[in-house]
Amino acid sequence: MKFLCISTVVLTAAVAFAQAPANDNAPKTMHEPPPLGIHWAKGSPQAQQAIQAAKTAGARNANMTWHNGAIMNSSSTQAIFWGTKWGNNTFVSDKISGLDSWYTGFGNSNYAKTNLEYTGTNGQVGAGSSYGGHIVDTTTASGGGSTSAILSEVCRRIAKPVSNGYYAVYTDLPRGNAGYCAWHSYGSCGGVPVQFAFFWNLDGDAGCDPDDTTTGHSQGLAALSNVSGHELSEAMTDPRNGGWYDNRGAENGDKCAWSFNVPSVAFSNGTHWKIQGEWSNKAFSAGTGYPNNSGQKGCLDGH
To answer: 97 exposed, middle or buried (CB, 10 Å; 0-12, 13-18, 19+)?
Structure first.
């Protein structure tokens, strides 16, 4: 969901670097890019307001509209695990290996294909997504919810950013009193436009927990994987604030937040995840989607 200000409180094929070297892409100065697609925690005032607003609007203004910008034809993803706790095996648990598997399986999954109906100035959203592995940066304490801090970390750690790059930064910081679980945004590194996302550490966080009881993943991994689906799908359909969202600013992930249709969804590599659906204008108009928390039948999860 669009947001104008935010609190500063706010696989085996993967290559990990325990002490990731910095590179020359870090911008010397930058404006503060806006956080997009904010995944509000369950029960937060913002989440409750969004549900009520959608109920009030009803079917009349349910679908998203295009705002004259580009989409992502494909994505090249990498994960950055930032913070000193990522050097602790007990803290890491199954989160790094699990998210490696998540990103590897996302590409060309039926879940990713729920976004294919959306187009932009550069064509159609694509389900193709390649995973370039992960970086572990334990050299400094991780930044909080500032978009400029997360963009700086991306630019420092990604040696060769690409324009269809989506760089997910998983910090070791607990959410605390912040009302959200994650967000995505955009910027540039060395003149190359990039997309990126921020995630709190969600271990033991009831407000960001999908209550996964079937896949065998730890609670922390289950929570991160669910919000990862929310943010990557939103980045694909609205990468730079000119894509698809409704008249309240809600993107496809926002409109189906905390709405689950089945116990788990299979990805293209055979892994299973409890994951929210994504909004489909076509499914809502045809009455073939499953309902979100406002009762609007426009969500798809590709199961």
So the answer is: middle
Which CATH number belongs to the domain containing residue 162 in this structure? 3.40.390
Paired sense of beta strands 272-273 and 180-189, if any: unpaired
Residue 93: its pLDDT value, please? 98
Domain membership flag for residue 125: yes
CA distance 180 to 50: 13
Look up tokens 């050097």; give the residue: 87
Assess if residue 6 is contained within a domain.
Answer: no
Structure tokens given for 252: 């496809």
CA dist., res. 142 & res. 255, Å (int): 30
Q: Identify which of 230, 290, 209 has the alpha carbon closest to the alpha carbon of residue 41.
A: 209
pLDDT tens, position by position, 196-250? 999 999 999 999 999 999 999 999 999 999 999 999 999 999 999 899 999 889 9
Q: Where are the beta strands (DSSP E) in the chain?
A: 36-40, 65-66, 75-82, 119-120, 123-124, 129-137, 165-174, 180-189, 192-201, 244-245, 265-266, 272-273, 278-279, 290-291, 297-300
- pTM, full prediction: 0.89
User: Percent of the chain having pLDDT more than 90?
Assistant: 78
Q: What is the largest CA-CA distance in the chain?
A: 52
283 in any annotated domain: yes
How far is Cα 151 from Cα 195, in angstroms, rounded to an integer?
9
Structural domain containing residue 251? 38-53+65-300
CB 192 within 8 A of CB 27: no
114/126 Cα distance (integer angstroms): 10
Mean of pLDDT over the chain: 88
- Residue 158 to residue 229: CA distance in whole angstroms: 22
